[in-house]
Specification:
390 residues; alpha/beta; Rossmann fold; Rna Polymerase Sigma Factor, Chain: A; seven-stranded parallel beta sheet; four-stranded mixed beta sheet; 16 helices; 45% helix; 15% strand; binds NADPH dihydro-nicotinamide-adenine-dinucleotide phosphate; binds 1-deoxy-D-xylulose-5-phosphate; binds manganese (II) ion; NADP; magnesium; metal-binding; 1-deoxy-D-xylulose 5-phosphate reductoisomerase; EC 1.1.1.267
Amino acid sequence: MRRVSVLGATGSVGQNTLDLLARSPDEFSVVALTGGRNIVQLAEDAIRLRAEVAVTAYDDMLEPLREALGDSDIEAQAGRASIAEAASRPADWVMSAIVGAAGLAPGLRALEQGATLALANKETLVCAGALVRETAARHGARILPVDSEHSAVFQALRGERIESVERIVLTASGGAFRDWPLEALARATPEQASSHPNWAMGQRITIDSASMFNKALELIETREFFEVAPERIEVVIHPESLIHALVGFTDGAMMAHVGAPDMRHAIGYALNWPDRRPLPVERLDLAAIGALTFRAPDPARYPALRLARDVMARGGLSGAAFNAAKEAALDAFLERRIGFTDMAAVVEAVLSRMEGEAGLFDAPMTLDNVMETDHLARRRAGETMAKRAG
Ligand SMILES: NC(=O)C1=CN([C@@H]2O[C@H](COP(=O)(O)OP(=O)(O)OC[C@H]3O[C@@H](n4cnc5c(N)ncnc54)[C@H](OP(=O)(O)O)[C@@H]3O)[C@@H](O)[C@H]2O)C=CC1
Ligand SMILES: CC(=O)[C@@H](O)[C@H](O)COP(=O)(O)O
Ligand SMILES: [Mn+2]
């Protein structure tokens, strides 16, 4: 039996992961499931999958969690430290599917205990790529990509040398507003931004798809995961979301990963790696699909891509600031304190202000420094938004 834990079990990636685990009950023994406020789901899944421990991120949710677990013998815990403790319980495979920078510390704890980390939480590599790689190397742990584009690249690279790679092309759906008139974007609402053309995902990543902050994070994630130069990583709009990424090699060949927009592809690949096993996903009927289309992203519509390139050029702790400013701007957009197009403007202003704060981005990449940068960027984003409002 392989021991597995799922961090962010109640979310979109978490639920897809549990779906696969539940189909092979004799192969997996579930150690820890973690969640946030969705206590009913967390308890139900913990009981159904016979988890050892269920953890909510929030202290005030401990009693409701205990109640929901009823007379089962599953341990109930709460709080950030308990999530990290759950991640460090011995396991062979840990899914990192908490949303946001909150996923970084638990992911590091899983690596420290030598587990294979199936990484959906892209913020982990954006905030602290070098630290994460170094932690994995020091503890003999492996990281397998789960973000669909990175799983696609990983699969296309199988058996290839990284020196043979000329370019990596990430596909982007273009998000909810791909075909909107540019001038309408400023008035876009959270509800309108929360609908993805092809994927069913959590609300935050769905809105990030509309602004292309998702692809911006993925550019940095690609750089950090595969350690290729930023100028070798491209983004192309592919409205059908059937090709998830392409790798171009030095001989001019390109390998594309094609599949239905279903995260169980990438999760299943990471779960079964290095084998391939049957997965309950749609088999594509190419003749029925007919055509796959591509177009270049418009820099005026998607300023987040330019900001990601600035961050890749800057390096150091700028990724942590970029992500935190984006998270703060997204919170403000969701609360209708700023408009859709203000998000990129806020992130740009925060990066530029923090760049001027001597040596900040060049501090050593420790978890403490990453979290300090994260907190400062959120504060700077708040100040920037207050100034813009006043
Ligand atoms: N959804 C997708 O298909 C894809 C997602 N990803 C990445 O995977 C990650 C998860 O995305 P997704 O599943 O969509 O997100 P969801 O919002 O659907 O789920 C997030 C999970 O994290 C929990 N959570 C929220 N805040 C905290 C916190 N502060 N501390 C601990 N746990 C917390 C939630 O708990 P609760 O809901 O109980 O409050 C939930 O279990 C993100 O990094 C995303 O970018 C990457 C590729 C595809
Ligand atoms: C499923 C997945 O990996 C998401 O990151 C997805 O790619 C989002 O779609 P966009 O291409 O719209 O950002
Ligand atoms: Mn993705």
